Structures are given as C-alpha cells and as structure tokens.
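Worked example 2:
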Amino acid sequence: MNAYDIIKLVMWAITVLISLSTLHFGIFGIIGVFAKKTYPKAKNYHKFGIIIPARNEESVVAGLIESCYKNDYPQDMLHVFVIAHNCTDKTAEVARKLGATVYEYNNENEKTMGYAFRHLFSKIEEDYGTQNYDGFILFNADNILSKNYFEKMNDAFEAEGCYNVVTSFRNSKNFGTNYMSAMYGIHFATGCRLEARGRTVCNCSTRVQGTGYVIPADIVKDGWKYVTLTEDWEFSADQIIQGRKIKYCDEAIFYDEQPTDFKVMWRQRVRWAKGHLLVCLTRWWDLFKKIFSRKKVGQYSNRVSAFDLMVNISPLGIIYTVLSILQLILTIIAPLIAPVDPANIWIDYAVSLCFSFGSGAVGAFFLAIAVFILEHKRIKNVPLGVKIGAVFFAPIFQLLITPMQIVALFSRNLEWKTIPHSDQTNFDQLNVVEGAEETTPADETVEVAEESVAEDATEDAAKEN
C-alpha cells in the first residue's frame, strides 16, 4: 500500500463515517411512510393564545384571522394576537377591525420574527398574563388553517401532557402556482412525512418548521428568547437540551404561501443557511454534551434526539465541500509522493465527485415523486405539468443548499427581509364545504369587518381622486 492508497482509504473512511451519522434519517423516513401517531379525543378544551407576527401583511392577515374564527373550536378558548412589526401599511387596522388584539412595534434594528415574538409576549404578560393561557400557537400572517386544526392540536397537546411542543402538517396554499412554489411544497411535505412523522412514532423529538406549532405557556413565563435569523432551529435545539420533546400531529393541517421566483427563493434560503450556521455555532456543543450526560433535565433524557438534531444542524454541505477540496489538493500532489499514474488519480477524483452529486440528485428526484404519491390526498390542484417540472427541478433545489451554505458562511450583516405575500386563497377554498352553512357570530364578525375595510378603501380612493 503506497501513500496514495492510504490517502484514498482515509478519505473513504471519513466519508463513510459522516454518511453513517445520517443513516437514522433514512430509518425515520421509512417509518414515516408506513406509520403515524394518532391522538385520542381530548377531554378538555384548552385555552390558546394565537400568535400572528405580521410585517406589511394587510393583503393576507385577514385570511388567517378568518380561518381562526371559522374553526370547529370554542371561540371563547381562543384569543387572537397580532403583532404589527415594522409595518408601513394597514396591517394593524385590518386586524383590529377583524377583532384581533393588535400591538404595534417599530424598531428597524430588530427585524427578525423572533423580535416580534419577544415584544408580543412581553405585552401579553403585561396586559393579560401569559400563564392565564394553557398554550400559544405560533403562525405566520399568510397561513390558512384546516377546519379542525385547533381541535386536532388540542387533542395532541393534551395527550402530550400539555408539556411538549406539538407541530403540524405544513401544506402550501399556492402549491400549484409554478415549479418554484411546488418545490417548496415538496420540501415542507418531506419534512412532515419523512422527518417529523417517523420521529414521533419512535417517541423521539422532531423540530418545528418555522410556524404552525403549539407551545406550553410556561415556556414563555420569562419571555421569548429566540431572535436569530432562524428562531425555529434555535428554539428546537433548546427544547431538546431542556428535556422537552417536539411532537408532530399529522391530522392538523395548515397552509402557507411559498415564494414563486428564484430571487426571493435564493434570498430566503441563504438567510436560512446563515441562521442554521449560527445555531450550529451556539448549540452544537450543548447537544453533543447532552448525548453523554447522565443528568436528567426536564422530563426526558433526549439523548437520541440530541444526536439527531446535532447532525441535522451540522453544515454537511460545507463539510463535504471541504473534503472535496482536500481530496483535490491531495490528487494534485499525489504523484509527487507516490509512484502512481496521474490519469488514474483524476479518474478516481471524477468518479468520487460524480457519485457525491449524482446520488444526491437521484435521491431528490425520487423523493419528490414519493411525496406526490404519498401525499396525493393533501396535495391538490397542482397541474400535471407543474408536478413534472417540480420533480425534475427538485435535485437542483436540493443541491443548491451547498452553495447557499458557502455564501452564508462568508456573508456579513445578512438581514431578515420581507417575503412578499399576495395569494388570496381563503378558508372556504381550502376546506371543502358541503351544503349551505349557518352564519355563526364569527362569520358575522368577519363579514362586518371586511365590509368596513372595503368601505375605508373606497373612501381613501375617493379622497385621492
């Protein structure tokens, strides 16, 4: 065995070791294909505060508030809070006319959604008391809920002892708009079906995906602490470290609006990558220690979950890129340290590189097909052409993670920027309504508020003219 053979063996061993650390992802995924956890009907209706951060969301915030009012859940057990964060439009006005409790907060130095949460929870504590609620459900202003969303989340929340965090199925209300929105839809459906579902079946902790999750009220008794670019990853890591679990309720479905153009997609996902790196820097070592700690914190040891999330927050794209560059350097200098044929060396390098990218691309391709098949009952109104395009472009969507992580690594002063939302898909379109429904007080509130907003818009137009 010469020096070059030793180099190949070492590189192969490192690659295999990293691959083995992610093997459990596939195991959880297979379990999620065939099994899910269902929750029994709750004995009690729990009181929830509905948390809605909104930055210039006047065109969509009414849809979420309306879907809260129209849900099959006692309205006196729901309290809708909206934080109009750095708004320059009529978001606050629209939300107030719909009956929500609205707070306004303007601070250009605090732009992330986490800052909005922090300010809102401080105001709730001051005016209502956070501990007067059993839990809080966190959304984005563009979300729309399924008709039984709160009922199903209440079932899961009670079954988890009102102690664990519970997340839900993230669907897309504009899934079929174009290839981009469809690829986003595939991404989030994959996270629910092949990540969260299997972990919950195995009684492990999953993670929250940005929005659509309920937290016990005691988590915010001292305020909200997560204000980075990706507060969801930071929050998830801390719950595992502190001995809670994040469970998944497959029957609770909410919908959100996905970006439809490349520029917005790139900006958003680079921000995610930057936040991901920050969480890795601040939480990786604590998760590593959690794996071996015998000290029990909270109700659960969470050793498996700590290992799982530790690997999940590791920047694997950057790690594989560094290994590839290292292999390239060794390939160049190999003829200087061992009597080998340079042509064979470059063939080995090319084969290794093609296998790495090829396996990832093929995996993403078939994963997209699998998601459309497995979730065909929930992924609706997507034209066949969009499905085909999304499947073929899915490998690119997935492989872009690596260059995005590299860009994020060297980016300074990367700021949170508004993702534009304009899709007008509403509650009734997403929830099949059979026959005429009686008008409820909530319906009347929505109708009156909408009429009032329309009248104001007419008056404003008249003044302008």
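The beta strands are 48-54, 78-85, 101-105, 135-138, 144-145, 165-172, 213-216, 246-256. The chain is about 55% helix and 10% strand.
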